[in-house]
Write a structure and sequence with these properties.
The chain is α/β, with parallel strands linked by helices. The protein is globular and about 65 Å long. Helix content is 25%, strand content 25%. It is built from 8 helices and 21 strands. The chain folds into 2 domains: 5-110 and 262-337 and 389-394, 3-Layer(bba) Sandwich (FAD/NAD(P)-binding domain); 113-260, FAD/NAD(P)-binding domain (3-Layer(bba) Sandwich), CATH 3.50.50. Helix 4 (167-182) links the parallel strand 11 and strand 12 (189-194). Helix 1 (16-28) packs parallel to helix 7. Strands 1, 2, 5, 6, 7, 8 and 19 form a 7-stranded mixed sheet that branches. The two termini are 40 Å apart.
Length: 397
């Protein structure tokens, strides 16, 4: 089909991955001819939502105008992609447009599946059911923490990939700290119910986190996948995947990390692998079947944690390899799976986990990052947000 408009490079998604790649390309190309397709007028630094949910910041500090980060000489198409037609080098949009490209970068992020847990979509943000995974509900987490007077505080983790795999437990450690300061922790239960079988995938950091859990007296229920919430009776229903058994737990408050997946328009496209993620080479980040398509970030099937830190290392690889492809040269840049999880273990304490595809530590600083440190907490609180807004989204760093 003939395209309504054509651009040399089209980037699907104006979040962390899309804007970072766009900014890097704009700095390298004399005639960028880049279009970014992104429906949202606002841009969020989501890693800060853990601290917002713990009362450290108001949510507004995590928000900026999307227009402020569209690179100069790039075109912002404020619309949403609904279909990929890679054989025609075209994407279709919600507003009925057909946009052609020479090269495509797919970075639409991850989809939060609120309706995958029965009763969650209509109740989150009320009745003691909170979640840091949405700008509209994140401040209610702090309300739940402040209003907690004792009983059971339940924190969940699904079996699907999620944005920042450590986030479901970080808010729990902060909640425990707050409960102790407020004098309501004694006699209460703090419970971590997770569909997966361990606290963390890398043993070096898992040992520290297990020590934090023991110190705080947190109960862990591994192999428990949340399938329903019952706001009226304040009950959560879990399925144990190993046995199919259902377990019901009463709570006074529950922080839910909802299941997540690739966006629906990616799942049903020719770009998807069997699980629905964009199918790319794990090192070059080029699509396995369409040579003029690259992908990075949360929508890709890269076997690593879905974090902004991973994108920081993926974006230069996509940029260099796309530029090489434009010149007809081999793709020399390689991504080794680096990711980072700044694991907040309390107010003023953080473990900075950094590792690669093989779960080997890839630490930045000349000290043992598996230990809880105040300096790393301050890095997350002040340093990383400043770096994100001022350097990473500008194509630097």
């Amino acid at each position: 089909m003939p395209a309504d408009q054509h651009h040399r490079i089209v980037i699907v998604g104006g979040g962390t991955a899309g804007i970072t790649v766009a900014a890097r390309l704009a700095r390298k190309l004399r005639r960028p001819e880049i279009a970014i397709i992104e429906p949202s007028s606002q841009h969020y630094y989501q890693p800060l939502w853990t601290l917002v949910g713990a009362g450290v910041f108001p949510r507004e500090v995590s928000e900026r105008n999307e227009a402020d980060f569209i690179p100069e000489r790039s075109t912002w198409i404020q619309d949403a992609v609904t279909e990929f037609r890679p054989e025609e080098n075209v994407v279709l949009t919600r507003d009925g447009r057909s946009i052609g490209y020479d090269y495509l970068v797919v970075a639409p992020g991850i989809q939060v599946d609120w309706d995958a847990v029965e009763g969650l979509k209509d109740s989150v943000g009320s009745q003691g059911i909170c979640s840091n995974y949405d700008y509209r509900t994140v401040e209610y987490t702090w309300e739940c923490l402040r209003n907690f007077q004792g009983g059971t505080a339940l924190f969940t983790n699904p079996g699907t990939p999620v944005k920042c795999g450590g986030a479901p437990q970080k808010i729990m450690y902060l909640a425990d700290d707050h409960f102790r300061k407020a004098g309501v922790r004694e006699g209460s239960r703090v419970v971590f119910a997770s569909a997966i079988g361990a606290i963390f995938a890398v043993e070096r950091y898992a040992r520290t986190l297990e020590g934090v859990i023991a110190r705080k007296g947190i109960e862990t229920l591994y192999g428990h996948d949340l399938i329903a919430v019952r706001p009226g009776s304040r009950e959560a229903v879990f399925r144990r995947p190993a046995t199919g058994e259902e377990v019901t737990i009463s709570y006074e408050m529950i922080h839910v990390t909802p299941p997540m997946s690739a966006p629906d328009f990616v799942k049903r496209s020719p770009l998807a692998d069997a699980a629905g993620w964009v199918d790319v080479d794990r090192h070059t980040l080029r699509h396995t079947r369409f040579a003029n398509i690259f992908s990075l970030g949360d929508a890709s099937n890269l076997p690593t944690s879905k974090t902004g830190a991973a994108i920081r290392k993926q974006a230069p690889v996509v940029t260099r390899n796309l530029l090489a492809a434009l010149k007809g040269e081999p793709l020399a840049a390689r991504y080794d799976g680096y990711t980072s999880c700044p694991l907040v273990t309390g107010y003023g304490r953080l473990v900075l986990a950094e590792f690669d595809y093989d779960k080997n530590p890839r630490e930045t600083f000349p000290f043992d990052q598996s230990k809880e440190r105040r300096s790393m907490y301050l890095l997350k609180k002040y340093g990383l947000p400043a770096f994100y807004w001022n350097s990473m989204l500008r194509g630097r760093g």
